Amino acid sequence: MKVIVAKDYEELSERAFEIMKAVVQNNPQAVLGLATGSTPLGLYQKMVKDHEREGTSYQKIRTVNLDEYAGLGPENDQSYAYFMKKNLFDGIGIPPENTHIENGLAGDTEAECARYNALLSDLRQDIQLLGIGSNGHIAFNEPGTPFSSETHVVELAESTIRDNSRLFEREEDVPRRAFTMGLKNIMNAEKILVLANGANKAKAVRGLVEGEITERLPASVLRMHPDCTLIVDEDAASLLS
Ligand code: GLP
């Protein structure tokens, strides 16, 4: 795993943008695996600005997102579908039919997971972008998730519900369940780009870079990937030796 320490969030977002832009330029039909959360927002703003100023085209790009809350549809402003539309898709002119995410409203969750796994085997990610949870989760693969997992429905960890409650009016409003790509779906990507900023990620980052490769820290699976880059700011890197 290649580790880049950026001096701050701005530099982290710029380095991530350079990597993402190279993928889009090398292959205008690339499949981008995308993530939600506050971490990738700086990168997404740079992609939007670049699209506006330089005309980088997303007409033929396809996207697959990591995860979605169970019970929330794309009209709900807390859903990840809504987040992606607002923070990236509307700003880069990508045809909506080229963007994919699990259907949070699916009644038959098993069928929905099977549909998404089939889609992912057709649309292998040229790059998969990831944030990391403070407990070392990637997407919504919580500690204990098998490395062999594919798309599934998870019960969110209490710490994740707490972390994510900052984005909801009340903690009770955070959905308890979510659809997520599995670790095997993530590892299938050609290239992986992990971003982490802030002191609350320092422990998970240390585990990812220097700890044991273990299902107790789902992100540690990434050390087995042949082309994984981690970009951290100085705060997130503060516990690295
Ligand atoms: C969330 C998401 C993850 C995200 C992580 C970190 O629960 N499911 O995909 O990477 O937690 O979020 P943030 O970037 O807001 O710290």
Secondary-structure topology with pairs:
Elements: E1 2-6, H1 9-26, E2 31-34, H2 41-54, E3 62-65, E4 67-69, H3 80-92, E5 99-100, H4 109-122, E6 127-130, E7 152-155, H5 158-164, E8 177-180, H6 183-187, E9 192-196, H7 202-210, E10 228-233
Parallel strand pairs: 1-10, 2-3, 2-6, 3-5, 6-9, 9-10
Antiparallel strand pairs: 4-8, 7-8
2-amino-2-deoxy-6-O-phosphono-alpha-D-glucopyranose binds near residues 39, 131, 132, 140 and 164.
Could you characterize what this model shows?
This protein is of the alpha/beta class and 241 residues long. The protein has a single domain (2-233), classed as Rossmann fold (3-Layer(aba) Sandwich), CATH 3.40.50.1360. Helices cover 33% and strands 17% of the residues. The chain contains seven helices and ten strands. Strands 1-10-9-6-2-3-5 form a seven-stranded parallel β-sheet, with helices on both faces. A three-stranded antiparallel β-sheet has the order 4-8-7, covered by helices on one side. Helix 1 crosses helix 2 and helix 2 runs parallel beside helix 3 (80-92). The protein is globular and about 45 Å long. The model has no long low-confidence stretch (mean pLDDT 97). Bound molecules: 2-amino-2-deoxy-6-O-phosphono-alpha-D-glucopyranose (GLP). 2-amino-2-deoxy-6-O-phosphono-alpha-D-glucopyranose binds next to helix 5. The site of 2-amino-2-deoxy-6-O-phosphono-alpha-D-glucopyranose has 14 residues, from helix 5.
